[in-house]
Amino acid sequence: MFTRRHMPSLDGAIGWVNSEPLGPDELRGHVVLVNFWTLTCINWLRQEPHVRAWSQAYRGDGLVVIGVHTPEFAFEHDIDRVRGATGVRAIDYPVAVDSNYAIWSAFANHYWPALYFVDGDGLIRDHHFGEGRYEQSERVIQSLLGIERELVSVQGVGVEAEADWDNLRTPETYLGYGRGENFASSSGAALDQSSSYELRERLGLNEWGLSGSWTIGRERVVLDQPSGRIAYRFHARDVHLVLFAGSHNPIEFRVLLDGEAPGPSHGLDVDPDGHGVLRDGRLYQLVRQAGEVHDRLLEIEFLDSGAEAYVFTCG
Questions:
Q1: Cα–Cα distance between 304 and 72 in angstroms, integer?
Q2: Taking a C-beta distance cutoff of 8 angstroms, is the pair 117, 86 a contact?
Q3: 288 with 144, same domain?
Q4: Which structural domain range is residue 260 located in?
Q5: pLDDT at position 246, please?
Q6: What is the largest CA-CA distance in the chain?
Q7: How far apart are the C-alpha atoms of 99 and 78, rounded to whole Å?
Q8: What is the pLDDT of residue 2?
Q9: For strand 228-234 and strand 296-302, is the pairing parallel, antiparallel, or unpaired?
Q10: Which residue ranges of the chain lie beneath pLDDT 50?
Q11: Is the same domain home to 199 and 236?
Q12: How many angstroms separate the first and last alpha carbons of the chain?
């Protein structure tokens, strides 16, 4: 059973984007929607078109949407990177930069994305974790505002497009040893030290492997010498990979599907020949399968050292 409680303080943010700091005085009498997110999260990216649309549709009725960016990976702590993400996603509502997890802890939150619905008296009246439930969530907003009208129409495009749930058989796959699984290597993983790896002749569904000289760390794998590869067997329409280049960018890479250029199945960050460039720390869409979805082998080769890979996500 959901227990109502007062919305916690937003103190503890290291900065704000699109707004001066907001507190009880500024929010009093407003319906507030608090959205926890992190810029590399595919689940948040697919939810964001709805949150953006609600902010635009209901701000005139008294709704205040507040994004809270709480980073999952170390490179996401950079406030300039958060500012850049809000620009790319056309987010014009206030965003609290919660790099020290102060607001996350105050809400006792555990999820990206998470929505908290707050009434005009400052009471949390509902919450939702993860994607989906969009119609119900919008009805909650309308109920708290005391209005009833036709729901907004939302169609995510590009990386924001809804997943092909009927054909999704590959889960989120972390590459760092802290949460990693399904690593397939005949020699096993050497943790926190540079080691050479070879790909197995065949990977099973949802398994991944390395080729070349890599360091497997707690939250990422890092390429130590040029021309290293990551291979991944998946079953999904889309494949994304969170990447960062540190001070080494730009780093060119090439993607192959079943040993060939992806052609019409290339993702947004790859051309039909499979070529892409790693510049910013973010989620890269490598594959969007054209036509029937079936098991495929993805290989991504980085031409220069320094590439950092964090997690595969599919859709």
A1: 26
A2: no
A3: no
A4: 165-314
A5: 85
A6: 63
A7: 8
A8: 59
A9: antiparallel
A10: none
A11: yes
A12: 31
> How many domains, in total, are found in the chain?
2
Query: Does one domain contain both 110 and 131?
Result: yes
pLDDT, residue 216, reads 98
What does the block give as tokens for 54? 């609600």
Measured distance CA(216)–CA(189) in Å, rounded: 7
pLDDT of residue 296: 97
> pLDDT digit string (tens) for 17-49?
999 999 888 999 999 999 999 999 999 999 999
Over residues 245-262, the pLDDT tens digits come to 988 879 999 999 999 999
Structure confidence at residue 10 (pLDDT): 96
In a shared domain, residues 138 and 245: no
Cis omega (within 30 of 0) for bond into 272: no
The CATH number of the domain holding residue 154 is: 3.40.30.10
Same structural domain, 137 and 52 = yes
SS (H, E, C) the chain: CCCCEECCCCCCCCEEECCCCCCHHHHCCCEEEEEEECCCCHHHHHHHHHHHHHHHHHHHHCEEEEEEECCCCHHHHCHHHHHHHHHHCCCCCCEEECCCCHHHHHCCCCCCCEEEEECCCCEEEEEEECCCCHHHHHHHHHHHHCCCCCCCCCCCCHHHCCCCHHHCCCCCEECCCCCCCCECCCCCCCECCEEEECCCCCCCCCCEEEEEEEEECCCCEEECCCCEEEEEEECCCEEEEEEECHHHCCEEEEEEECCECCHHHECCCCCCCCEEEECCCEEEEEEECCCCCCCEEEEEEECCCCCEEEEEEEC
Contacts 24+ apart (CB under 8 A), 193-202: 194/224, 199/229, 199/231
Are residue 152 and residue 298 in the same domain, yes or no? no
Angstrom distance (rounded) from CA 144 to CA 256: 50
The CATH code of the domain that includes 192 is 2.60.120.260
Residues 225 and 126 in one domain: no
